Automatic annotation (TrEMBL):
InterPro entries: AB_hydrolase_fold, DNA-binding_regulatory, Hydrolase_4. It comes from the Bacteria. It holds the Pfam family Hydrolase_4. It comes from Brachybacterium muris UCD-AY4. Signal peptide: none annotated. Residues 78-196 form the Serine aminopeptidase S33 domain. Gene3D superfamilies: alpha/beta hydrolase. This is Lysophospholipase.
């Protein structure tokens, strides 16, 4: 699982040297939305996990070419579309994806635009990426039209899963690990961690609007989460998350319907619930996606 920090701490520290200046805001906006690729393109695939897979390529809604892996379980009754976090890629989702595959669930995992094997396109922190997830859902539905379709997302991918799933009634269930409630809040939290005044987030928002064509107010899972009802939503969050504070999870749950559940992992950092108990995490997610194991209505549980 990626640490997938929505605003890289190093960039914010550098921006803090000239806090609240236009130059610093432009730098931070580019960190959020500008292109970024690792120096070496090598990555693990399902081959390393001993799982057969098919490479898939499909266009996003704006034509950006998206690439992913299809892990097929013939005759499976569930399909999970798995979304990675900010600046991550699909290889970081191999643990949960191959675990669900071995549990009898077909899986489509893919790279958001500008990451992994997918083409560059307009990038963001969960705004443009919604197009990619909707396109991936279309591919999964074409390949298994009779199966229940679920979403599994981490960090930014979790926020995107909430936003997209809320508007698509054909999604049966959603798993969101470490989602943020609103983009402004998570950027402001990153600024505070780097000892940059919280008002800096407003300048980054302004720069993002001018340079990249969207604003933070357009990425607010907290405004969409109630529309997931009555479908089940399972959230995970670490109580020691330094990237997306756990209060985001509590705010989301407060706005969700009773069909939403929150599982807290004591002492875990960002996306750390999986690593705290890999077999247990996979088993819980698989059972949830199959509708076999639902927590008490509106529950908050601790791992």
């Amino acid at each position: 699982m990626p640490r997938s920090a929505p605003l890289a701490t190093a960039a914010l520290v550098g921006a803090g040297a000239t806090a609240l200046t236009g130059t610093a805001a432009l730098i931070a906006a580019r960190v959020l939305n500008g292109p970024h690729r690792p120096d070496l393109p090598y990555t693990f695939t399902p081959f390393e996990m001993g799982v057969e897979f098919e490479q898939v390529t499909f266009p996003s809604e704006d034509g950006t070419v998206i690439r992913g892996w299809w892990l097929d379980v013939p005759g499976s009754e569930q399909v999970a579309v798995v979304s990675h976090g900010f600046r991550g890629d699909k290889s970081q989702m191999l643990g949960i994806s191959t675990g669900l595959f071995r549990a009898g669930i077909s899986v489509l995992l893919f790279d958001f635009r500008g990451n992994g094997d997918s083409e560059d396109g307009p990038q963001s922190l969960g705004h443009h990426e919604q197009q990619d997830l909707r396109a991936a859902i279309g591919v999964a539905r074409e390949r298994r039209p009779d199966a229940e379709l679920g979403l599994v997302g981490f960090s930014m991918g979790a926020a995107v899963s909430i936003l997209v799933g809320a508007e698509d009634p054909t999604i049966a269930r959603i798993v969101a690990d470490s989602p943020f409630a609103d983009m402004h809040g998570v950027v402001a939290a990153a600024a505070t961690t780097a000892r940059v005044p919280g008002a800096f987030a407003h300048l980054v928002d302004y720069a993002t609007r001018g340079l990249y064509g969207y604003g933070f107010s357009q990425v607010r899972p907290i405004d969409a989460i109630s529309r997931i009802a009555p479908r089940p939503l399972l959230m995970f969050h670490g109580t020691a998350d330094r990237t997306i504070p756990v209060e985001h999870a509590h705010r989301l749950l407060a706005q969700a319907s009773p069909s939403a559940y929150l599982e807290l992992t004591e002492g875990a950092d960002h996306c750390g619930s999986y690593f705290a108990d890999r077999p247990g995490y996979i088993a819980s997610v698989a059972a949830f996606l199959r509708g076999e194991e639902l927590p008490p209505s509106g529950a908050v549980q601790s791992r």
